[in-house]
Amino acid sequence: MAPTPQWLRRRTVKPEPAGDVLWEICRSCGERLYKKDLAEKLWVCPRCGYHFRLHALDRIALLADGDFQELAALLATGDPLQWSDRMPYAEKIAGDRKKSGLLEAIVVGLCRIDGVRVGLGVMDFFFRGGTMGSVVGEKVTLLIEEAARQRLPVVLVTASGGARMEEGVIALMQLAKTTAAVERFSELGLPLITVLTDPTTGGVSASFGFQGDIIIAEAGAAIGFAGRRVIDQTIRQKLPEGFQSAEFLLEHGQVDMVVRRSELKGVLGKVLRFLAAQAVPA
Ligand SMILES: [Zn+2]
């Protein structure tokens, strides 16, 4: 396993204001883990292998060769519906921006992964649950269009609760928009690799998430469309244990491989080089 880059180490041990500064409890085995060690281990529990959710910038540090150039960094939602429920949408966004240091739930840009130049987009579940509103949809589309211009493959790392409720039908439109962008990209003979991480659900799994030419799932990730309770109440049938896990989906042919975080960069590099060798010149 490659050593953790210095700036990833610095960032991942940054204390979070609400939680314990030094310790983290594993959600799977209950082990109490020292955050600094956990960051060194890429936020994977050393006892049971549980993969903690990763911030977008940490994921980029893990995958990019240190040359990430962000695109459309300043795109921000305009609160198109002037939405308010428990609190105004604008306030929720402002809070998430402060906590995450991001303007939106995805970061997109160009970089190399294991030496191969790609367009890379990484979603952040800690920002509005990784929901897709107008800006997420626009940034995914812009990334795909820029990669098409430069004839680069695209890697999209998803983590999402679905479409962003507070943007109503404008959020739903992003499913059609991103799907159409992937379709145009595919017609050029360029490959899209999606990496589904915990959790990938709703509008993102129903659009570009499952449109990858190669679909990789991170070990242990919950992946599906509707949640278990919604399906239970709709079809009134007993659902199999673990039916929305990465491993279950692999067994049933819904994803191409399940990869552990420590191996993800190497696997992506191999897949990208393999696809480049098969490519037909433009
Ligand atoms: Zn554990």
- State the assembly state of the protein chains: single chain
Q: How many domains, as an integer?
A: 1
Approximate helicity band = 25-40%
Classify the fold: give the CATH topology. Answer: 2-enoyl-CoA Hydratase, Chain A, domain 1
The appropriate CATH architecture is Alpha-Beta Complex
Number of distinct helices: 10
Please characterize this protein's 3D structure.
This protein has ten helices and nine strands. With 282 residues, the chain is an alpha/beta fold. It has a single domain, classed as 2-enoyl-CoA Hydratase, Chain A, domain 1 (Alpha-Beta Complex), CATH 3.90.226. A hairpin with a 6-residue loop joins strand 1 and strand 2 (32-34). Helix 5 runs parallel beside helix 6. The chain is globular, with a radius of gyration of 18 Å. Residues 26, 28-29, 31, 45, 47-48, 50 line the site of zinc ion.
Give a quick summary of the entry.
By secondary structure, this protein is an alpha/beta fold.
Main features:
alpha/beta; two-stranded antiparallel sheet; binds zinc ion
Chain-wise SSE layout:
Layout (H helix, E strand, L loop, with lengths): L5 H7 L10 E3 L6 E3 H6 L15 H8 L5 E3 L17 H12 L5 E8 L2 E8 L10 H16 L4 E7 L7 H20 L4 E9 L1 H4 L8 E5 L9 H8 L10 H6 L5 E3 L1 H18 L4
Parallel strand pairs: 5-6, 6-7, 7-8, 8-9
Antiparallel strand pairs: 1-2, 3-4, 4-5
Helix pairs in contact: 1-3, 5-6
Bound molecules: zinc ion.
